[in-house]
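Can anyone check this?
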Amino acid sequence: MRFLALLALLVPGVVCGATVVPDTKIAFGPVSSPFADYRARVDQDLLGDYTETSFSFNQISATEYSLGVTLVALDEEADWYLVEAGDLFTKESIAGGEFTPLFTTDQWFPAVTVGSDFYLGVNTGNWAGDVGGFETRDVFGWVHLRVVAGDLVMVGNVLSFGGGLVVGVPEPSCFALACFGCLFFRRGR
């Protein structure tokens, strides 16, 4: 039972009934624009309603880069944060100020300095007309980015619809299966 309690703490998407989708709901790539170097497209629901955010990305030293938001879509928008692998990315951790923001619905922030391998967290939602027309912010995700031969490439991403997640964990169900496998393997010895 302790193992299930630990799993509940580590992987809230599994416990909260969130739908977690790896590597399909976020697109990230270069863009030809005088205002941006890269663009991220995030599906805000399982059917594909999306929002886009553009970023500037410039090398400032041999190992450091400047990353900032330059343009945002005018629909529901996406809030972007600099996060780290292992962070618990939820409404509560965002409200607690645990992450460095790049853009939120009500504020633009200065560019941040990143290395050649980093994570961004994204929080967005869709227009929920069936609940009084208020926008929900129940979509959480992470994007793993790496500089390869001078270009910024997406290594992986995950979106959780309906609950938070752990940054860097590819998919909670795979993580849970791996944990159960380790538990049974250890008992078999």
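Reply from J.R.: I decoded it. The first strand starts at residue 19 and ends at 22.
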